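Question (not urgent): is this output format expected?
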Amino acid sequence: MNLEKIKRVPLISYLYRTFHIGYGTCGVCGLPWSNCRSHTVKMSGYDGFFPVCEYCWEHADIKQIKQACTKLYYIWESQGIPPYTIDEMHRAIDRLKAQKGELEMVK
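Got this back:
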């Protein structure tokens, strides 16, 4: 098992969060951004959002990534007005995955 996979074991991820309080986390594996690279989903121009880390973007399934986006949306909603709707976020993920050939069909 390589280090990147070990860091995402739930107990290890929890320990990282314990030692890096105050950092946001990946919506799939829970690692703090101080311990992994975020994957930015571009919306337009310089706008975008980062619900998951690079590792999870490559290894998690589309459903997990969309669930992370939905969680991020509700965090934004609790803090004020979210910049995007859930549907806009999910369509952006479909578009990016389709560009990489990882989706057979975009709805």
